[in-house]
Amino acid sequence: MAIICTTASPAEKEQEPKQSFENDQTPPIVFNPSLLNLQSQIPNQFIWPDEEKPSIDIPVLNVPFIDLSSQDSTLEASRLIAEACTKHGFFLVVNHGVSESLISDAHRLMGSFFDMPLAGKQRAQRKLGESSGYASSFTGRFSTKLPWKETLSFRFSNENNGSRTVQDYFSCTLGQEFEQFGNVYQEYCEAMSSLSLKIMELLGLSLGVNRDYFRGFFEENDSIMRLNHYPPCQTPDLTLGTGPHCDPSSLTILHQDHVNGLQVFVDNQWRSIPPNPKAFVVNIGDTFMALSNGIFKSCLHRAVVNRESARKSMAFFLCPKRDKVVKPPSEILDKTPRRYPDFTWPMFLEFTQKHYRADENTLDSFSNWVIANKNLI
Quick one: where's region Disordered (predicted)? Predict the structure, then answer.
């Protein structure tokens, strides 16, 4: 069957706001860590302000392990999730049913892609206004506080329960020689979508909602998959792999390699979540925080780098179908006053792109913006 290559849908737009360079004649720096690490100091664009510089020796965050293998533990799992999500929104899932060989293949191919010469990776260069493609430290969009990382992102759609969006992306963008990449990541995204729907059932139970409510809301999700590569850095105390942010999406399912780097800001202190090859790290995003009417929290987090080892991770950002109205179910609104106005995911995404740089106040700022501009939206 012939593959028809199409332009990206609005759901593929960036999860991070753009920065204008109209008045900046300096060409963006090229992020090539093998060359940058030969310099005596990293370029100023990668140096973060003192108040945001990383803390390496920090305590470990106590997050619950949610075992998905036993139906008998459903009530206990929902209790543990509720406890974590009302405080910081992070938990680990184990016995999740995702094939170890699939996870291994996905990590192996991620390494193969990022090991390619820069010119080869730039064949998938991300275009402005899209979330699919290769991004080299986002140097085309920001000029300060650049992250020490490179990423490859692509869209996954579960709308037709058989869509081959990932396979088509790799074939159209990188050619038929990347067919194996498309096959593996298509299967991986399908596994993440299925896993996210299971987690949605537990989130519903945790909130006192019918377990099928959120599962149905995200059944036809239009999500984003991102591969992250954080190369070694000769001055890791000056920069960050990813700056402090809350995910604007609904749910993030992350798998880390063996290198530490994920940090979460809880009780006015940064805390780490060490890698666990048997577990996925799950965290609540701003959109689900709105769906829960603020009961479950979207928490500030970041990634740090080190001098010795590259770090890689795979993040699946669950997002609702474009036309779904984000509104808490009646079971929640009957108990708590309404905190956020109705919105759709593309509206929120546009706000984070054009009006506000994502932080821990994004959702409240977006709500105020929606109310102030309700006649224009």
Answer: 1-26
Q: H or E segment at 67?
A: strand 65-67
Is pLDDT of 7 > 70? no
Sequence-separated contacts (24+) of 124-128 with Cβ below 8 Å: 124/152, 124/173, 124/174, 126/153, 127/8, 128/18
Q: Is the pTM of this model over 0.85?
A: yes
Determine phi and psi for 216, rounding to 5 degrees.
-65, -35
Is 311 tagged catalytic? yes
CA–CA distance, 95 with 107 (Å, rounded to integer): 19
State yes or no: pLDDT of 106 exceeds 80: yes
Confirm if 134 and 110 have CB atoms less than 8 A apart: no
Phi, psi of 370 (to 5 degrees): -60, -45
For residue 139, what pLDDT band results from cuts at 50, 70 and 90? Answer: low
Contacts 24+ apart (CB under 8 A), 56-60: 56/236, 56/237, 56/304, 56/306, 58/263, 58/269, 58/270, 58/271, 58/272, 59/269, 59/271, 59/272, 60/271, 60/272, 60/273, 60/274
With bands split at pLDDT 50, 70 and 90, how would you rate the model's confidence at 24? very low
